[in-house]
Protein: Major facilitator superfamily MFS_1
Amino acid sequence: MRAVVPQYLYQLGATAAFVGFVFGLGDALGYAARFATGPLADRRGGYWLETFLGYGLQVAAVAGLAFARDVWQVASLVFLERFSKALRTPARDAIISGAGGRGSGGKAFGIHAALDQVGAIAGVAMATAMLYMSYAAQAVFTAALVPGLVALLILYVAYRVGKVKPVGRGGGVAVGRGVFFFGAAQFLLGLSIIHISLSMYRLAEVPWLASLLYLVAMVAEIPASLALGFIYDRSHKTLLIAPLFTILLAISFMTGGVYLFAGAVLYAVVTSYADVVAKAEAAKLGAATSLGVVNAMWGLGLLVSGVLYGYFTDVGNYLAIVFTAASSSIASLVLIWRLVIS
Structure:
């Protein structure tokens, strides 16, 4: 779905600022809601109900996109899809952490992220091929329902035979200063990243090419997720990697052209970091509550960066994008450095 929506919004007359707003606010809502969904999962215990509801809402959002014909209808469904992720992710991540066992959190999240990307690659490849063959966006959304429904079935099988049933902590989990300190670093990191939807928007006149760009990012996330997961289990200083890549991403976005594809790889490294290293670190600091707080701060950074960089793209001020991204990236690096050496 996300491989098609930026181009579809472009076709409906949206500006780059609006696309940045939709994906920025969507991601921010999806992450900010975890302030509530994380503690809720811990208090209620069990975690599986939230996971099932989250995946079900995502399938419903994709179904709605097949009928959406207005930019605000599309935006609302993107927001619903992001909320579905907020509902399921803290609970699902607690299940993954429990499945990984003590001392292997990085590996567990790395394996999960890599397998997740296998599905993403298949989906984006399907979308790219359909757009190349001149299928409408609505046809892609309809086709995407099939793997979504199969995913729900497989989730049920995992619940029945996997025997991974984390127990809630009854009363919630206290959040210490370290969680908010690390969350602040993730906010600044989110502020420094240029969402791939903006790179796709720049290629939207050729819809299949924009989807191909997204496909490159999805492919790159598999080795990045696995590598970061294994490295993190061996060295805490893996936390310092991502801020350096966001500066290079900003430069590639400013350069444009074929360098947008290099930027897609850089984007993949940073998002893999957020999905693997940051989550493993947050899991160490607490349970679903800590995961929710850290992810929410990352999402708030994405909201600001999406709107800000979308506006700068509309007016053609790419130097401002590089300056803002580099400044917030360096600030994030300083905070993470203090966390690592403390």
Q: What stands out?
A: The longest helix spans residues 71-100.
